[in-house]
Design goal:
This protein is α+β, with helices and mostly antiparallel strands. It is built from 7 helices and 17 strands. The strands form 5 sheets. It has a 6-stranded antiparallel β-sheet with strand order 6-7-8-16-11-14, with no helix packed on it. A hairpin with a 4-residue loop joins strand 4 and strand 5.
């Protein structure tokens, strides 16, 4: 656990890890302010990936250590998590939203999420970093966007993603709207589940109520907004040759975003 004044730490960071310091400073200076500080993906990616231990603490001569017996753990791995949560009779740690049954195995870590499934022997869970690195090459979208993605206007959850179509559940917060945009490779069908959608397609703006739907052709300029006081929830079905999140051409955006962020 580290305690320091911000100015002292920044001084040491500049001294021992000047590249981290300079790229972090650039990212902050380029950030936009719109209710919160927003740093661009490109500026964040330019900051070297190195822990505070290696970057500063092992090099600084201004560090003092105070021993403390407070029974504290940073729970920094699945192994550590298994030590503070229940395990089965065979010392298997299972984290899943669905029933998981194991036969004649022991000392395993099983992490089942909407995105991926991890099965590891206890003591080896730190190697998950190697898996993440391989996914960055083979399935880069998986390492950046979860099944449920949070955006300034709300959230979306990918319910199904298969070649030719993708199905999402989209929730738009009250008084928020998505960017004015278009797609080159997909058509979209919107079905309202709750709330009232204000939909713009081309030069027309109209309301879509629960159990009603609308359709946006590929290439059409469109926008989804929630002008009401309760969350808007819709089901979006994308149909087309390509349904990647980077097939977005933004024309106007309330949050000054670029690309698919």
């Amino acid at each position: 656990m580290f305690c320091f004044k911000a100015g002292v730490f920044l001084s040491e960071l500049e001294k021992y890890s000047s590249l981290i310091y300079s790229t972090s400073k650039t990212a902050f200076e380029h950030a936009t302010l719109n209710g919160m500080i927003r740093i661009s993906y490109e500026d964040m990616s330019a900051i070297p990936d190195e822990s505070i231990d290696y970057a500063v603490m092992e090099k600084s001569d201004r560090v003092k250590v105070i021993p403390s017996s407070i029974g504290w753990s940073d729970v920094g791995s699945f192994d550590a998590l298994s030590e503070v949560m229940p395990n089965d009779v065979n010392n298997n740690f299972i984290l899943s939203n669905k029933p998981v049954n194991l036969i004649d195995v022991k000392d395993l870590i099983i992490i089942d999420t909407e995105d991926a499934l991890l099965i590891s022997h206890k003591g080896s869970s730190q190697k998950v970093k190697e898996i993440v690195q391989s996914y960055k090459q083979s399935q880069p979208e998986l390492t950046h966007i979860h099944r449920t993605a949070h955006r300034p206007w709300g959230t979306y959850t990918v319910l199904e993603d298969t070649p030719g179509y993708k199905i999402k559940r989209i929730m738009v917060k009250p008084a928020k709207r998505l960017s004015l945009q278009k797609h080159l490779h997909r058509n979209e069908h919107w079905i309202v589940l709750s709330g009232t959608a204000t939909v713009t397609v081309g030069d027309k703006t109209f309301m879509v109520h629960p159990n009603e739907s609308t359709y946006i052709k590929a290439g059409e300029l469109h926008r989804l907004a929630n002008l009401g006081k309760i969350p808007l929830t819709i089901i979006e079905t994308q149909v087309g040759e390509y349904t990647g999140e980077d097939d977005i051409i933004r024309i106007e955006d309330d949050f000054n975003r670029e690309g698919n962020k």
